[in-house]
Write a structure and sequence with these properties.
Elements (H helix, E strand, L loop, with lengths): L27 E7 L10 E3 L2 H8 L5 H4 L5 H10 L4 E7 L8 E4 L2 E5 L9 E8 L3 E2 L1 E4 L5 E4 L10 E4 L2 E9 L2 E4 L18 E3 L1 E8 L2 E8 L9 H4 L6 E5 L8 H6 L5 E5 L13 H5 L22 E3 L6 H14 L3 E5 L7 H8 L7 E5 L2 E5 L4 E5 L2 H14 L9 E2 L4 E2 L5 H7 L4 E7 L3 E4 L14 H16 L11 H20 L8 H4 E5 L6 H5 L5 E5 L14 E2 L5 E2 L1
Helix pairs in contact: 1-3, 3-9
Length: 566
């Protein structure tokens, strides 16, 4: 409170208005799978188009080399084709995958990540002597000279004059001391000197296919601000390690060979690893802590994805782990593929019964698209396309709309199921993709993989995730506020305003706001003990809109006289 010293009337402003709640995004997907390149640990990487994906992770994988594990690229492409705009990628690799590398003299270069892609990285080096150093006087001290300027110089820098190399051992004011005497005359006081030293630097370029990185004026002096290890840490293609210089000489010659002032070399030894080294654990990953998580576990530290898939991976342990991950975090939904060659209703139901969770949904059959790996039509898992439909529906209609009766952009299906077969599968939570006469190929199911009837439908669970995460994201201002009636009122108004907007936009059921939601906070929701222990408890209820899954038109015969005949 302000301090008042003089009697009078004071007017102050204070914030009593409710805070607004902005809904969180629901259309960002996450994918886990094998790729040609890209980091295999740490935070998943954002991709905003398929072109962006190919730049960061490479093209579609070979069926011959990767078999059933090759579907990430095609699935991501289908995500964008079907309406997705943002997704995060967590690349996984076989245990025996290796990085390409090369050691040339004092320089060791290693590809940024594992894979044969690194064997196509070419590194070019060239000696440059752009900076001139004029020595204007020789001091009384041995091998010490006064320079016209020492700007940009530091201890350990290599200099050259007439092919004679030397190293700066110390700099004080404008006095430079070298590690050894010069054999040549180096002092020149002229306004336009003919005798100058040159600072020896290195230009480096790194090329991978059409991707080119250039670095100019690098130094092999670890004390230099232009040290190669620091400047090239920005590279997306390689990492560099440079050993200390063992003599006053041209660094490029110590790398490429005596007398060679420029040249290039390529990395080697990169390996994609073998499919035999891929297991369920490859996709599940490990929780090595921040920055070191892999596979599904890499998404622990990502709070932006709202749906997650491991395209084409139907290994039970992976499916269970993916579902458990989504259920534990409570802020995302799992989209699960069923085995490609599984078609019988009994075996599909048996596979579906492997999990019981309202945070996941299963889709079948696989869809036909243009497969970039073989340049012809092929079948891929539907999860990528389904995630794209989720995103498209969220943007066009809202998360409350069931992502079903929506067109899938593909050319065919592995299996064409009948209505009779769907009569068996749909109640069991198997969501079919069907080719309907005159309507194209559509997702024709919206069931979760859970037995809880309250969350039978995908849109209901995702609506609750949306509401919960939105409230959580925009109510942090409440923490440490005085837990009294004033705060309770502000919280109630804040949340009620948010829910009323949802109701007015058709996202909640009921003909009035009171039928669509309620917000309770105060003495009825918390005891004195709760308040004494810092707990603020607010009860919120929402009436989710459920889809019209079964549309029934009852038709009777009507006569002109007004009587009806059954």
């Amino acid at each position: 409170m302000a301090e008042y010293l003089s009697p009078g009337v004071y007017v102050e402003e204070y914030d009593s208005s409710p805070r607004s709640i902005e809904g969180v995004g629901t259309s960002t997907a996450g994918f886990v799978g094998l790729a040609q390149k890209g980091a295999a640990s740490g935070s998943p990487v954002l991709v905003t188009s398929f072109a962006d994906f190919t730049k960061k992770y490479g093209n579609a994988l070979s069926e011959y080399e990767y078999g059933e594990y090759r579907h990430l690229a095609n699935s991501v492409e289908q995500f964008f084709t079907n309406g997705g705009t943002r997704c995060y990628i967590a690349r996984v690799i076989p245990q025996d995958a290796k990085k390409a590398a090369a050691t040339m003299g004092i320089l060791t270069a290693t590809a940024a990540n594992e894979g044969v892609w690194g064997n196509r990285i070419q590194i070019s080096l060239s000696t440059v002597t752009r900076k001139k150093i004029q020595l204007v006087a020789e001091t009384q001290l041995p091998i010490t000279y006064t320079a016209k300027s020492v700007e940009g110089l530091c201890e350990g820098d290599i200099v050259v004059i007439d092919g004679e190399y030397n190293v700066i051992s110390s700099i004080y004011d404008k006095n430079i001391t070298f590690v050894k005497p010069f054999e040549h005359e180096v002092v020149d006081k002229a306004l336009f000197p003919e005798r100058v030293l040159y600072l020896v630097e290195t230009d480096v370029s790194v090329r991978y296919n059409d991707e080119l990185e250039g670095y100019q004026g690098l130094s092999f002096n670890i004390k230099s601000p232009n040290y190669i290890g620091i400047k090239m840490s920005q590279s997306n293609l390689i990492t560099i390690e440079a050993a200390p210089m063992d003599s006053a000489s041209n660094p490029v010659e110590q790398i490429l060979g005596e007398g060679v002032r420029e040249g290039s070399f390529v990395l080697a030894g990169g390996s994609n690893g073998s499919v035999s080294k891929v297991s369920a654990g490859t996709f599940i990953g490990e929780d090595g802590g921040p920055g070191r998580r892999t596979g599904i576990n890499a998404f622990i530290e990502n709070q932006l994805v709202s749906m997650l898939a491991v395209p084409g991976i139907t290994i039970p342990e992976v499916v269970v782990s993916l579902t458990a991950h989504c259920e534990k975090l409570g802020n995302r939904f799992a989209i699960i593929d069923m085995p490609e060659n599984m078609s019988g209703t009994d075996e599909l139901i048996s596979y579906r019964n492997m999990i019981d969770s309202t945070y996941a949904a299963m889709y079948h059959p696989w869809i036909q698209v243009f497969d970039r790996a073989v340049n012809k039509a092929g079948f891929i898992p539907p999860s990528g396309a389904v995630a794209g439909v989720y995103a498209r529906t969220d943007v066009n209609r809202g998360v409350h709309k069931a992502p079903a009766n929506e067109t899938v952009m593909c050319t065919g299906l592995k299996v064409n199921y009948t209505s009779g077969e769907q009569d068996i599968l749909n109640p069991q939570g198997v969501n079919l993709i069907r080719q309907l006469p005159g309507q194209g190929i559509k997702i024709w199911g919206a069931r979760t993989a859970g037995t809880n009837s309250a969350f039978k439908y995908v849109n209901v669970r995702r609506l609750f995730i949306y509401v919960e995460e939105s409230i959580k994201a925009d109510t942090s201002w409440v923490v440490f506020e005085p837990n009294d009636a004033t705060l309770w009122s502000r919280v109630r108004v804040t949340i009620s305003s948010f829910l009323e907007n949802l109701w007015r936009n058709g996202m909640l059921a009921g003909s009035t706001p009171a039928e669509g939601y309620f917000v309770e906070i105060g003495p009825t929701t918390m005891s004195d003990d709760d308040i004494k222990n810092g707990r603020l408890i607010c009860n919120i209820g929402i009436a989710a809109v459920r889809p019209a899954e079964f549309v029934i038109f009852r038709v009777t015969q009507h006569t002109a006289g007004g009587d009806s005949e059954q």
